[in-house]
Amino acid sequence: MSPTVIHLRSETKPLERRSPLSPEGAKALLDAGYIVRVEKCPNRIYKTEEFAAAGAEIVETGSWTKAPKEDIILGLKELDADGTPLPNTYIHFAHVFKKQTGWATELSRFSNAGGLLYDLEFLEEGGRRVAAFGKSAGFAGTALALLSWAQQILRPGVPLGPAPVVDSTQELIDLIKKEVKEAVAANNGEYPKVIIVGALGRCGTGAIDCLNAVGISQDLVTKWDMAETSRGGPFEEIANSDIFVNAVYLGANPAPPFVTFESLSGPNRRLRVISDVSCDPNSENNPIRIYSTHTSFENPTTLAEGKLDGPELRIIAIDHLPTLIAREASDEYSGLLLPSLLTLNRRDTEGVWTRAEKTYRDRVAELP
């Protein structure tokens, strides 16, 4: 039997710097008998030279489109929606299995060409994802929320500019500390009050880690999870906080709204920033139904899509937040994913892959 080929493609999403495979992971796969090809990708947090030193074969950017059908194409974010057929086996976050906007068109690109999609969100063992960026997403989303809050205090009416590009988490923390310190001084010495919904999960843990790293007192942080939201929203406590971090995992069923235009229009609203780490604005399950568009690292915030009284409210809805701390996020994620990648040569019988394939087949069966 020929060795299994794993082809790590370059990413095309603006400012996406993460990788689902590290140079150390590439070496482990090579040592296990796989062939590993890595595309040149100037924005990737791991340098091409690091993969070459590990023994991977370096190939040209975009060469995955011409790879033999037997090759497995590994990536991170969704492919460009250009309509081209997808006949290979692909591993990445596709954002189509929850019937997001355009799901049928994108999923058909795989099914019509005889391809197969293993969606990274649905690689599970024991009912939990084998790998997730949740903690990094919570950290990054909270970091941007703090910067946006400081921006509103220091420069009212001026949206937060492009997100900082940093090489380490510590560099980001130092930047936030400086901005928050200046904003607190201009805000009569008051630090922001923060509410985290989904505080017990991975995203929520990352949000708490960020606040601790920056020096926000835990007395100012409200931590909610399922018990606190079980009564159904909207929640006055959110409107009475300065920053709301939504870190819940959106399930298959619609959730009651956490906020509404009415709940945010009271005369005493403090809320200035919503960081929607869950970030599925086009899903009918979205509990923050006051906006419907993603934001980006170039333009991190947007306004609510309706009239609100009180202070300006800015919403962060970036669907690849962890790339803000790309190296730490990639180190953690690739390490968690590697044990599953090492079983790809047994994917026809290995549970994590057979379950993921069944999920794909089930979604294809629902295509209109």
UniProtKB/TrEMBL annotation:
Binding positions for NAD(+) per the UniProt entry: R128, G201, R202, D225, T229, Y249, V277, I318, D319, H320, L321
Keyword ATP-binding: no
Alphabetical keyword list: Amino-acid biosynthesis, Disulfide bond, Lysine biosynthesis, NAD, Oxidoreductase
GO BP field: lysine biosynthetic process via aminoadipic acid; protein import into peroxisome matrix
Single GO molecular function: mRNA binding
The keyword Transcription appears for this protein: no
Pathway: Amino-acid biosynthesis; L-lysine biosynthesis via AAA pathway; L-lysine from L-alpha-aminoadipate (fungal route): step 3/3
Location of the Alanine dehydrogenase/pyridine nucleotide transhydrogenase N-terminal domain: 7-140
GO cellular component: cytoplasm
Protein's name in the database: Saccharopine dehydrogenase [NAD(+), L-lysine-forming]
Origin species: [Torrubiella] hemipterigena
Record lineage: Eukaryota, Fungi, Dikarya, Ascomycota, Pezizomycotina
